Amino acid sequence: MLATPAFSAQKWRLSYFYDKDDSSLVINDLQFPAAGHGVAVGYIEEKGKSRPVSVTTVDGGAHWTVANLRDIPISLCFVNEAMGWMVTPKGIWQTTDAGRNWHELAQSPKLLMKVYFLDESRGFAVGAHKLAYQTEDGGKTWAPIAAAAEPHTDPEYTVYNNIAFATAKTGLINGFSAPPRPGGNGAPDWLDPKDTTRRREWPHLSIMLDTRDGGKTWQPSTSSMFGRITRGVFLPDGRGLGLLEFSDTFKWPSEVHLVDGTTGKSSMVYNATDRAITDVLLQPSGTGYLAGVEVVGQMQHSPIPRKLVMLKSENLSDWREMDVDYRATAVRAMLRAAADGSLWVATDSGMILQLTGMP
Questions:
Q1: How many Å separate Cα 53 from the centre of its chain?
Q2: Whole-Å CA distances, 84 to 102, 117, 138
Q3: pLDDT tens across 73-119, in order?
């Protein structure tokens, strides 16, 4: 259902804004390993060079500290207030002090996008070229997940991009295979917007690996579908939200689906032609949140930051837009919940916002 008027009592307020002349901060991920302790990672673009950094708070966002990292961070995973992992293009790094210091895991695989750990020992990693791994020793050694190689797709065009567990036993790995179109030049669609809007969205192969025993075994399945599953979040009772994103040639930029993790059935609960959703969050109460950006003109996806849009629904059917700081813009935004229940959103334009006020 399309958005309706905004909530008045709650507001997404800026907690951190990297606002410096001649440089910019791209935030790739944000996690809260403990209440009040947040860790954002990304890189600062300055004079044509990229400098990897972390931005951390230990006082609930009152103050943030920028520190240098040794490699460009892609994503984060924490299992408690101290132990965490960071994915970079060259491998995986580990922290035992909540992100204050990081050390590289020498035997970790490369070309990864995400890791997900059930505890300090058992974890999983996925990425480009059909890569999927598991570890039983906290990431010191990794073994391929055999089921990930079973779908009949070209590894060059196959990506596993999301891991989600509802419980310690039940989990999903999502991916897709999207070979280039015949006659295409391989360039991003936004380089030729007129040509892009003339082409139809093509279906591609969606891949899912399902486990019901904590990752000991995985069952692969495939389906032809429009759009790519870019995010999935689940509650212990099996309820989940899944995000599908489409190219500029589809009717709308994204869809959000309510998923039953026990049966695999799903139903669409949100789409809009003028809102491109980039992340979803589902609370134990059943309240859902969406983060996205305004769509202006024919180009549904653009490298130029646009107005940040936040939506909320208690019944996952009627979605209302929330009050957001007018300065907040993004190409992509990510939603996170801290251990104390506070909600946060980070943007790839160097902003971190916190939800304030009574619901």
A1: 19
A2: 9, 9, 10
A3: 999 999 999 999 999 999 999 999 999 999 999 989 999 999 999 99
How far is residue 255's CA from residue 201's CA, in Å, rounded to a whole number?
14
Count CA atoms within 13 Å of residue 313 on its CB side.
Answer: 20
What does the pLDDT read at residue 49?
Answer: 94
CA atoms in the 13 A half-sphere facing the CB of 240: 24
**pLDDT value at 211 more than 70:** yes
Give the list of residues 6+ apart from residue 284 with CB closer than 8 angstroms, or none.
Answer: 235
The identity of residue 202, as a single letter, is: W
- Three-state DSSP state, 149: helix
Inter-residue contact 160 to 171 (CB < 8 Å): no
pLDDT tens per residue across span 236-276: 888 999 999 987 677 889 999 999 867 778 899 999 999 99
CB atoms within 10 A of CB 337: 17
Q: Are 44 and 35 in contact (CB under 8 A)?
A: no
Q: Which of 110, 127, 238 is nearest to 176 (CA)?
A: 127
Residue 54's nearest CA partner among 83, 90, 95, 19 is 95
Q: Got the DSSP string for 270-312?
A: EE-TTEEEEEEEE-TTS-EEEEEEE--SS-SS-SS-EEEEEEE
Can you give the pLDDT at residue 90? Answer: 92
87's tokens: 């994915």
Do the beta carbons of residue 41 and residue 33 sit within 8 Å? no
> First CA to last CA across the chain, in angstroms?
21
Q: Tokens standing for 340?
A: 């104390």
Token reading at 242 = 């899944």
- pTM (2 d.p.): 0.90
Q: What is the DSSP string of 58-123?
A: SSTTS--EEEE-SS---EEEESSSS-EEEEETTEEEEESSTTSS-EE-TT--SSEEEEEESSSS-E
